[in-house]
Amino acid sequence: MNEKNLVAQALFNALDGALELEQIEKLIEKPKTSELGDLAFPAFQLAKVMHKSPQLIALDLCEKILPDGFEKVVATGPYVNFFLDKNAVATQVINEITEKQHNYGDQNIGKSRHVVLDMSSPNIAKPFSIGHLRSTVIADSLANIYQKLGYQPVRINHLGDWGKQFGMLITAYKLWGDEEAVKAHPIDELLKLYVRINAQAEQNPQLDADARQWFLKLENGDQEALSLWKWFRDESLLEFQRIYDKLDVSFDSLNGEAFYNDKMAEIVDLLDAGGLLQPSQGATIVNLEKYNLNPALIKKSDGATLYITRDLAAALYRKRTYDFAKALYVVGGEQAGHFKQLKAVLKEMGYDWADDMEHVSFGLVTRDGKKLSTRKGNIIRLEPTLDEAVERALSQIDSKNPSLKNKETVAHQVGVGAVKFYDLKTDRTNGYDFNLEEMVSFEGETGPYVQYAYARIRSILRKAAFTPNFVTFTSLPLEAWEIVKILQNFSETVKRAADKYEPSLIAKYAISLAQAFNKYYAHVRILEENDGLNNRLALANATAIILKEALRLLGVEAPEEM
Ligand code: ARG
User: Fold this and answer.
1) Sheet of 114-119: strands edge to edge?
2) CATH classification code of 3-84
3) pLDDT digits (tens, 9 = 90+) for 316-366
4) Which of these, 164, 281, 289, 410, is most buried using a 10 Å CB contact count?
5) Contact predicate 533/472, CB 8 Å
6) pTM of the model
7) SS3 label, residue 160
8) Do the Cβ atoms of 524 and 539 come closer than 8 Å?
9) How far is the CA of 249 from the centre of ligand 1 (A)?
10) Which one of 335, 345, 359 would you pick to mutate in the ligand 1 pocket, going by the greatest count of ligand atoms within 8 A of its CB?
11) Is the Cβ atom of 140 under 6 angstroms away from ligand 1?
12) Is the ipTM reported for this complex over the cut 0.85?
């Protein structure tokens, strides 16, 4: 229950069913100044239903509303102004968190239905890019958020492990490959081969023809092609796995593009049966003019299938396997056109569940204000970058808290957490500039700042040997009320983050809670031995519980000490 619910419920009881609870909630507003109370209800709408002036209705309501939970309720013109009984609210919120612990804010909106998240999805034999990092951490957080709302998340890594680039790679490997080198540094070596063959194919069309040939062989199950493909894939996956271990992210499925190889004939048949296929310059397309989109290219002239064909098969497979309530594709904004086409083709096939698919797009990362570009050498290599983040965290810990036990573990939690947090606090569709120093800083709106607030509270609670118990507040300094207000907004924030696919709302929430606590800490002597001690500790404890839970939703750990 938050303050809005409290007010809505009181109005609902007083109104005898003149408006639905939900309608009432929508009408409640925050007054311009706190002199007008904590919340206000305008009576204009009711005036139309009740054929009375809003001023009169406001006066009537004030008389009927029961005082429980309010300091006072007054009519100001056409408005009913509510002044909350802050002590009552604090008592309720803090006790509820003490009781429910990290389950505070859990909701059962999802009723255990599946939300499938298409996430990470790097391409075999190519480096794991910063875009893949964004996809990984945003989707992982959304999965946690949806789980808290009662959905069952399914994390799917739709690996880019199929396509003509494998024909290119096999051709290159057969010409210039070195087994030992590939084993030692798979992605580096494979990338070199890939770059070399692409450059040469521009001059030498025979190489391109060879590559097509190899990919066709692969699609037709040729043994040699398959075993090379499998080897490239396994080696690349080993390398990706190291990154996933560092990020502490795992998947329910690694069914990538190749998995759908034997499921594409059905798609082509279904499209054909629906009369949706058209020949176009030897290739086969679905016309999407009526959606104002370019045609979707389903099959090339040589019969090879394409990215979108595999995505069509994947969507159908996921619907059949998981009967998803939602399917989220967490993929960079540059693929917006592709996902529009994908949904449009599925709609044309008569699948209304295409409306439950959402392209959750995100913006580009730059460095020093410049676009990243492999060609211009402006690249961020993820593994060494994560290691550097941990190093930086370690050196800060060394100077702040040199005697800390298990420093390495904490440095890992802080360093990696910092990179994730920085990404997640950015509004998803915006990009950001990659700056490790800023990310790992203990000051500012960073992960370490939030983690530090948590660790500080935990240390206070340890010092006081606090054991959770139920409390009654009878006085509340302003700084404490600020904390209570934020705490009671937690459920609503989780819900909004899910509706908007915006983990940034949780990250910003965590920052404001940590800031509110630090203000409180600066103004109030928490550990002073007097009557209020137990209440202050209970407030601090509730703050720690929610800080940790907010960080968990972001996939960031909360060390007990740092
Ligand atoms: N592998 C692709 C890339 O790196 C992303 C795949 C996104 N998912 C999908 N179902 N198309 O660009």
Assistant:
1) 152-157, 114-119, 326-330, 357-360
2) 3.30.1360.70
3) 999 999 999 999 999 999 999 999 999 999 999 999 999 999 999 999 999
4) 410
5) no
6) 0.93
7) strand
8) no
9) 18
10) 335
11) no
12) yes
